[in-house]
Each structure stands twice: as structure tokens, then as C-alpha cells.
Design goal:
Elements lengths: L2 H27 L10 H19 L6 E2 L6 E2 L11 H9 L3 H26 L4 H12 L2 H5 L4 H4 L4 H35 L12
Helix pairs in contact: 1-4, 2-4, 3-4, 4-5, 4-8
Length: about 200
């Protein structure tokens, strides 16, 4: 395995373990003993939706309608559950329980926030220490840490550095492609103007 690939693998594993550790500390070991108005959505809205979605998918059904809230309402089209979001769709089938589903969703996206920031920074040419510091700063930011209880909101944040990483890589490919086309075109033009047509074929070969 190349050094870069090995470093990225170690980074992915490290961010995942850190995310699992922080989730365990924040939710399991240091769990709130009671709930208030500020956290009522977690218990009265988010948790029932998670349980219902998991139960229906595990039963082999697509939960199009929720008959238990507001005298019945559409369910699969709600952004609050994001049923068709690929990671959620996969985890709904794999998670052994609703609690495990929430845990896997949070840990995956929590770790992804750090890992994609790491990838973006290393692509920009940051040294290891700088890339790691940037990744941890984003991963442990107040915004992300506060959303750890709301998996559906947390799911949107890690894709910002992922998009930046992907766009930067695409621009690099376009730039390399443009340089290659420019070189071939220049050689062809000089060959033709010099009256040596076979020479124009050699650079392409």
C-alpha cells in the first residue's frame, strides 16, 4: 500500500474510533438524567420516528405513511427521517435495533466530518500535523458536537469538506487534461507548420 493510502486508512480508523469514544462518553456514560423543553424533540419526535422507520423497514415495508402523529401524515417524504438517504437506507436494514441505528448514524457522520476534512487538507498540501489539527477542529466544533443527538441534521455537515475535496480533485483533473491537450496541439501545430506531417503523429503515439 502506498504511504498516502496507508495514512488515509489510519486516519479513517482513527476518526471512527474517536467518534465512537465520544459518542459513548456523551450518550452512554454521561447520559442526561432527565429531559427539558430544549431536548423534548429528541424524546417526543425524533425517537418515535426512528423506532417506526426501523420497525417498518425490518418488516420489509416502505414506511410511506405515519398513522401515529398529527392524525396521520406522510412519512417517507419527510426530510426529518431521510429514508432514501443512502447511508440511512443501508443502516435501517443492518442496525439490530433503533438505538443501534441512531448510534451508527451519529458515529459514521461524526467520523466523516473529521476524515473528509483530513482528505481535503492533505490534498491542499497541508502537513500531517496541520491537516490533523484542521480535521479535529472541524469535527469537534460546537455546531457538530451539538448536533450529535440529531443524526438527521448531523448527516448534512460532513459533506461540506467532502464536496470541497471532490471539487478540488476535479479541478486538478481538468487542469491536467487542459495542459495535455495544449501540449499535443502545440506540437501538432509546429509539426504541420514545419512541413513535416509524420512528426505530428509521433507525439500522439
Amino acid at each position: 500500500m502506498k504511504p498516502v493510502g496507508r495514512a488515509n486508512l489510519f486516519a479513517a480508523v482513527g476518526f471512527f474510533l474517536l467518534a465512537a469514544l465520544l459518542w459513548t462518553h456523551r450518550v452512554v456514560l454521561d447520559a442526561p438524567r432527565s429531559w427539558s423543553i430544549s431536548s423534548s424533540d429528541i424524546f417526543l419526535f425524533t425517537w418515535p420516528e426512528v423506532v417506526y422507520a426501523w420497525q417498518r423497514v425490518q418488516a420489509g415495508e416502505l414506511p410511506l405513511w405515519n398513522p401515529f402523529q398529527l392524525a396521520g401524515m406522510p412519512f417517507s417524504s419527510l426530510q426529518s427521517r431521510a429514508i432514501f438517504y443512502p447511508p440511512n437506507l443501508l443502516l435501517l436494514h443492518l442496525a439490530p435495533s433503533p438505538a443501534a441505528l441512531l448510534t451508527l448514524q451519529a458515529v459514521f457522520h461524526f467520523a466523516a466530518a473529521g476524515f473528509f476534512t483530513w482528505l481535503f487538507c492533505t490534498r491542499l498540501g497541508f502537513r500531517t500535523a496541520a491537516a490533523l489539527t484542521s480535521a479535529l477542529a472541524f469535527m469537534l466544533s460546537i455546531k457538530i458536537f451539538n448536533e450529535i443527538y440529531f443524526a438527521v441534521w448531523l448527516a448534512t455537515i460532513p459533506w461540506l469538506p467532502a464536496i470541497l475535496w471532490a471539487v478540488h480533485g476535479l479541478l486538478q483533473l481538468i487542469d491536467l487534461f487542459g495542459i495535455g491537450v495544449w501540449k499535443i496541439t502545440t506540437v501538432q501545430a509546429h509539426s504541420i507548420h514545419g512541413g513535416v506531417s509524420p512528426a505530428g503523429i509521433l507525439p500522439i503515439q
